[in-house]
Automatic annotation (TrEMBL):
The lineage of its organism: Bacteria, Pseudomonadati, Pseudomonadota, Betaproteobacteria, Burkholderiales. Keywords: Hydrolase, Manganese, Metal-binding. GO terms for molecular function: dipeptidase activity; metal ion binding; para-aminobenzoyl-glutamate hydrolase activity. It comes from Candidatus Aphodousia faecigallinarum. Pfam families: M20_dimer, Peptidase_M20. Transmembrane segments: none annotated. The keyword Manganese applies. GO terms for cellular component: cytoplasm. InterPro entries: Amidohydrolase, Bact_exopeptidase_dim_dom, Peptidase_M20, Peptidase_M20/M20A_hydrolases, Peptidase_M20_dimer. This is Amidohydrolase.
């Protein structure tokens, strides 16, 4: 492998790592991506050409506005921000001018809401590229995914005379919370795609390992619940109040007891609960963040229906109002044997890949599943692989990836896939 590609990817990864951005706010990151793609000669689709607003979930306009201002203060031009139409996410398109398939690779861009460790031995502190933004960190490797995409873009230009068909590089916002995949899948930019390959760093693979996922992941729904009661003095006339806090607490404990489902695995997490105004006031407001998962779409919907039914019943019992909002979703993974077999053969042929790891049983969720489903729906083919790193657990402040060694794994997998399917 050419060291220049590795050095370039590492530089981009560390630049992005220093400025992590949560879902739907990745304006600085996207500016880096679009600028580089255009330098290389790619056509870039962005804004509502890349994101279908009708399918957007979990996007806070106030948070987006603040992010755009922050990006502007850090050197992003107003012209670029206007071009985004307030939506992060873009697709770089390379037309070879020769007949051939349309191939798409997906790369997500957002970070995790977690504080990066200050351990001086951690790789980002050793390398002086730790997060500059408190409470935010690339603790899931999306900075690596984005950087690999830019490395592949450079390789495409360098090998343009050897390729055929069309190549699309999709840079997705808001994978955390499973919010960005569906609106990009419904943008129209996937309607002509023949092959789509998605990937992720880490999970069950160590450095030098590749996992081929032929099936797996859990369908999921992210749900925001809010409760509104009635205020009253907690001492003099508590009977006049209606406690949103107690209603929310009862919902939380009851949700934890949803019966398991014999048709497949289920998960539920009550991740956040904020409630109340003061010690001596019957609590008027409560907000809760919940997620459910299921081994299949019907099993996941079983969980969603149960959450809504419990919430409605307890709200009525406590005489409070409630709202139920789905703010994210992903489906299960379906792939094509042709693509999976090709990826496995490629991995076996890369000298520094020492092991192929069985990876069909991963129980997390991934919203690239919407992108793959869209391609499969019109007769295209898709696949998913994992490239390894030695990490201590995703979504943790000490997550690390050994970028100089791990990024070439994905780079080789993707560029060799292009050579296999798009070689002139």
């Amino acid at each position: 492998m050419n060291e220049n590609y590795t050095n370039e990817m590492v530089q981009f990864r560390r630049q992005i790592h220093k400025r992590p951005e949560e879902g739907w706010t990745e304006f600085e990151t996207m500016n880096i991506v679009v600028k580089r793609l255009r330098e290389l000669g790619f056509k870039v689709e962005m804004g509502t050409k890349a994101i279908n607003p009708k399918f957007v979930m979990g996007r806070d306009p106030e948070l987006v506005a603040k992010a755009m201002q922050r990006a502007k203060e850090h050197g992003v031009s107003q012209e670029f921000l206007d071009e985004t139409e307030g939506y992060t996410g873009c697709v770089g398109i390379w037309e070879t001018g020769r007949p051939g398939p349309v191939t798409m690779f997906r790369h997500d861009m957002d970070c995790v809401i977690v504080q990066e460790t200050d351990d001086p031995k951690h790789e980002s502190n050793v390398g002086h590229y730790c997060s500059e933004r408190d409470g935010l960190m690339h603790a899931c490797g999306h900075d690596a995914h984005t950087s690999v995409g830019l490395g592949v873009a450079h390789w495409i230009v360098d090998h343009k005379d050897e390729l055929c068909g069309t190549i699309k590089l999709l840079f997705q916002p808001a994978e955390e919370g499973t919010r960005g995949g569906l609106p990009m899948s419904e943008s129209g930019l996937l309607d002509d795609v023949n092959y789509i390959v998605c990937c992720h760093i880490g999970t069950n693979c160590q450095l030098g390992e590749i996992g081929i996922c032929r099936k797996g992941f859990l369908a999921t729904a992210k749900i925001d619940l809010s409760f509104t009661g009635k205020p009253a003095h907690a001492g003099s006339d508590p009977e006049k109040g209606r406690s949103a806090l107690l209603a929310a607490c009862n919902v939380a404990t009851t949700l934890a007891g949803i019966p398991r489902n014999g048709q497949g695995d289920t998960r539920i997490s009550i991740g956040k609960l904020n409630a109340g105004e003061g010690r001596n006031v019957v609590p008027v407001h409560a907000k809760m963040q919940v997620e459910v998962r299921g081994q299949t779409e019907p099993v996941n919907q079983y969980m969603v229906d149960y959450v809504e039914r419990i919430t409605k019943g307890i709200a009525e019992a406590y005489d409070v109002q409630y709202t139920f909002e789905k703010v994210g979703a992903a489906t299960t993974l379906e792939t094509s044997d042709e693509v999976s077999d090709t990826l496995e053969a490629i991995a076996k042929d890369i000298p520094f890949i020492k092991r192929i790891v069985p990876s069909d049983g991963i129980s997390g969720s991934e919203d690239c599943t919407w992108l793959i489903r869209k391609v499969l729906s019109h007769g295209g083919k898709g696949g998913f692989f994992i490239f390894g790193c030695n990490q201590h657990g995703h979504h943790k402040g000490d997550f690390e990836i050994q970028d100089e060694q791990s990024l070439p794994e994905a780079f080789e997998m993707l560029t060799r896939f292009l050579q296999a399917k798009n070689h002139a």
